[in-house]
Amino acid sequence: GEDVEQSLFLSVREGDSSVINCTYTDSSSTYLYWYKQEPGAGLQLLTYIFSNMDMKQDQRLTVLLNKKDKHLSLRIADTQTGDSAIYFCAEEFSGGRRALTFGSGTRLQVQP
Amino acid sequence: DTEVTQTPKHLVMGMTNKKSLKCEQHMGHRAMYWYKQKAKKPPELMFVYSYEKLSINESVPSRFSPECPNSSLLNLHLHALQPEDSALYLCASSQGSRNQPQHFGDGTRLSIL
Known about the structure:
The complex is a heterodimer of chains A (112) and B (113). Chain A has 112 residues and is mostly beta strands. Chain A has strands at residues 4-6, 9-13, 18-24, 31-37, 43-50, 55-58, 61-66, 71-76, 85-92, 100-102, 106-111. In chain A, strands 2, 4, 5, 9, 10 and 11 form a six-stranded mixed β-sheet that branches. Chain A has a five-stranded antiparallel β-sheet with strand order 1-3-8-7-6, with no helix packed on it. By secondary structure, chain B is mainly β. Chain B has strands spanning 4-7, 10-13, 18-25, 31-37, 44-50, 53-57, 64-70, 73-79, 87-94, 103-104, 108-112. In chain B, strands 2, 4, 5, 6, 9, 10 and 11 form a seven-stranded mixed β-sheet that branches. Chain B is globular, with a radius of gyration of 13 Å.
């Protein structure tokens, strides 16, 4: 089945690194995504990783994938107040449907 | 700025009204999606169009009627909605082939009186 889990809340100080974690259960996932949602806005695609990769880096963002443990993480370096938002991980089920399964979202609060 | 444009941004309607939500993209994407998002929850898939044909309907009530007039446009026609249908309605698009990321609009915030 498809199930994606995230912790609900993370608070960090400005300038620190943030690590947002996600676990998934579908071993046949092909792509795993991170989206950011600010209040009153839609979802902004941040980055994604193919399931045969271990790591992907894009400027301040680093995605780590541990396929054995079905664990995905998003690290934000030098976290800024503008990074405060809800972060969703999502997996694309490879069972033929073009559909994403989202985690419950992690609310990141950045304190000045 | 998002490349998927949704109108209107806000909509208030009574339970007997008929209204439509609109979504437009000019990225040449061939798959388009409607999602419903309740407060403090992740988006839930409603419909998927692939090459202008409905490919997924997630058992959505018939008071929601999607339409894809062409590859750039996606509508969601609303009729006789219930208060529990109040939510943020998100449109997304992706390239027609599989394993392509979905790009979302900013949504329409719908309130049913």
